Amino acid sequence: MTPPSDHSAVKALVFDVFGTVVDWRTSLIADFMWWGKQRGITADWTALVDGWRGMYMASMDDVRKHPERGYVMLDDLHRRSLDKLVEKFAIKGLTEADLDYLTKGWHRLHPWPDSVAGLTRLKTKFVIAPLSNGNVALLTNMAKFAGLPWDLILSAELFEHYKPDPETYLGAAKLLCLKPEEVMMVAAHNGDLAAAQKNGLKTAFVARPTEYGPLQKVDFEATGNWDIVARDFGGIADRLGC
């Protein structure tokens, strides 16, 4: 493997969010189990959450394949997937308000233990922002809920393209008035970093081996020649002198 390239020119760090910054699976399962007890609604919430995430990529691919239909933000894709899962799992008695609560569960995700402290350190030296497929309202509400200290919100919604489309990575650099090589993409997913690197961004990998719980199959370790590979966000801050 060749030595990582110099990253002294980096001025901004952009982050994948679901799985990299926040623990979506544990957060949603705990939220829905508590909520289900309050409402007296019984369901296999773990299976629903895993099934929901399992529909994520396909729902975005459908938007990509049908540009004539226009861009559809992630909240709306999540709701469409939820409606199918409620039917599949035969969950009865849900009102419109209930379905809205469940959909907005993605706005109420808890950070990994190192996320807030690591982001706070990185913020002292760099512009930091999400670069997520989540829509702007979702990411803003999540930041308020989880205490994420972003400088601004960068979302696929702004570019009307989902990652890994080039428009997301290049669009983020453009909005920041930076060259791609002045922006570092941070993710727990090798595929996300490969797409960012292909578009000229610097890259940092942090493994989140429990993201998918027992269903995790990939991303246990770095598989590309990334500029930084660290154990957690604190490790990235160490490498970048924060």
UniProtKB/TrEMBL annotation:
CDD domains: HAD_L2-DEX. Keywords: Hydrolase. The keyword Hydrolase applies. Coiled coil: none annotated. Signal peptide: none annotated. It comes from the Bacteria. SUPFAM superfamilies: HAD-like. InterPro entries: 2-HAD (IPR006328), HAD-like_sf (IPR036412), HAD-SF_hydro_IA (IPR006439), HAD_sf (IPR023214), S-2-haloacid_dehalogenase (IPR051540). Pfam families: Hydrolase. This is Haloacid dehalogenase type II. It comes from Bradyrhizobium diversitatis.
